[in-house]
Amino acid sequence: MIRPGVLVFGFCSILLTACGSTDAGAKKSAVASFNPPEYAYSLPSAENMVTESVVVAGSHKTQVKGTPWGYLPNGSVLIDRYPEGDVEGAPSVIVDPKSGMSYADGKKYDSTIDPAGVSANSLLTVHHSSKGKLSFREFDFRFALKREISLPGKSLSLGFDKGKGTTYGWLAGTGKSVFITRTEWSGIDSTGDMLTRISKSGKVTNVLKNKHVSNLTLSSDGRSILASLASDSPYYEAVPGTKDIVELDPVSGEIRKSFGVPPPCKVFKRVMEQESCLDRIDKVGDVVAVSVFESVKQDDRGFSGYSTWKNKDGKWSEVKSQRDKTVYWQSGSDRLEQAYQLRFDNYEDQSPIEWISGGDRKVLGSKGNLSIREWRVPGSLIRP
What we know:
mainly beta; four-stranded antiparallel sheet; 28 strands
């Protein structure tokens, strides 16, 4: 679910997002220290209902039409230019907060392009051509195209092959491989799914066939590729239940280790079209962590709780200090924190975002339609 009015916070040094990816096997943590007042925010515009994004760093303030996708590993902000109002077909933009410089995508991607991941030095996308052809594209952080590789299948989203087609979803990149979740469809029914692997040489292969892989994520410290396995095939416009959290081999993509799911996932009841309890996945050191939605009875107005769990030595335990909170940990005890809004009908009373450092709390933004959970905000799920 994407909605306007979201703050995204940035860093002045090279960083990795919790939802992004980098070279696996890195020896040092990729989590850097938060450095206010560098941040980005978006607010709805009355004119043509186009979202306006503002990127701030010190005295620099850059305003762009579009919605922040999130921060890239070099500290820049990717602004998505959705085809709405007077920006239809306009190129997306990368803004450097320090200089205020912006770089437009020369390929002019719009809703037919899904910027779904990053590596340490690249923006990773899946491109849908007007003829239904699919390709993997890798850009640098100024939108220079580094490579383009054809992908199997024809685009389902563009209505080719009489309701039959292919969709690509989650991306995660390492120094030697890029992985993309892939699903084959016939109408609204999934006929097969797999993980597509692109090697450094450009060779395309498939692994984990019909394992129902989702939530493909590189850990915030840059050392592990994590994913979830669904209990059923992907659904059209719905989210199947989660049955396992796994760690993948960063080169081959094969399953290296399984962790099961924390207790709330075993009793989760569907909310709207979502049967999955899972929100974020991370691994810090040798500890796997997940944040989960809790739903003990079906209620389409929201969830009954939001909690963070960690798996150490094969056992799940709750991080009780993070109950009903969205937290992005930085170095030491520094962190971004926001109370999670459980009800779907109460977004106008969103809790403020706080920066906590050295025992001091500073409110960033004010009450309103603001959330840090849905954007690529840097930091780890549990304390490093």
